Amino acid sequence: MTLNCDNKPDLTLSPRVRKLLELESQFTVGGFEPLPYFFEKAQGSLLWDVDGNRYIDFIGMFSAVNTGHCHPDIQEAVIEQLKKGYGLDSKIQMNTNPRTGEVLEYLDLDRMRTCLEEHKDRVAAVIMECIHGYSQDVNEEISYARGVYDLCKSMNILFIADEVRQGVGKTGKFFSFQHLGHDVKPDIVTMGKSITGGFYPQSFIMGLDAVMASVGPYEMASTYGFTPIGIAAANATIDVIDKENLIERGVSLGNLWKKTVESWNHPLVDYVAQVGADSNLILREVQPSRVAALCMHRGLFVYPKPDGIRLSFAMTMSDELLLEGAAILKGCLDDVDNYGLIELE
Hints:
By secondary structure, the chain is α+β, with helices and mostly antiparallel strands. The chain has helices spanning about 15-25, 60-65, 70-85, 110-120, 140-155, 210, 230-245, 245-265, 290-295, 320-335; strands at about 1-5, 10, 40-45, 45-50, 55, 125-130, 160, 190, 205, 270-275, 280-285, 300, 305, 310.
């Protein structure tokens, strides 16, 4: 830490982290803007960087570790499966073509209706996350998703629920589409990320019999399709969620978080978008990347967006750890203007 000409302290990176950032910039391209920290160990909702510093993880690999890092039950299941070996030539039934999709403006049901009515003879399906978790009132997102579903059903268009990020209990139900009503049955559901507890990059596609039966055999080969390691991790993850009542736990965490943040009545906080253990803290009159950088210097791992802070809590996190992280964040909001440079903000 140094003082600048305004007598405000600057926060800088350690020599080791600086060297690793130079290597990363030399050998990697694309993807997310890198956060200036390198972790070498994780357990539950805690991380440790290459300098031995401890961090509370409020990102959770963007919902890939909803059961926390290195959950012992899932780890044991994966290790046992590894001892048995695994195949490399399984097949997975799927079609893929990245150039057949179009993106429409979110939460504009009239625009969606107009588009589908105009192109219904050419639209095969609509794929969407039923809950994004960005709106101040989640019911707005639920109403929109239900409206899109009803449009698809009325026009004989497939409705695909993307549950990769918001599935597996994150929103307070196992699938986020379940918030739309008991009568909603997507034609296809995609799953990934936390379905294996962060232990293996496995994805799943499920669908109604009438839809899945249309895919012929050997449409596409997949070297790691249906690998026993991924299946073992997924089964263990589902068992952990059931045994530890993590869906209910995620709702409790989310309620505690929202209540805590709103009690601050902080001038830099616009609102909290909250559903289950998924949260977005929308800020005003402050640069989110600057707040996130200060949080990192104080031991809290969060991810900045243009309008706020992205948060994803592991459903196994304790109340005490959540409140410890909340206190760090509040302190950063209070103090952010007291610093000069916060390196890589």
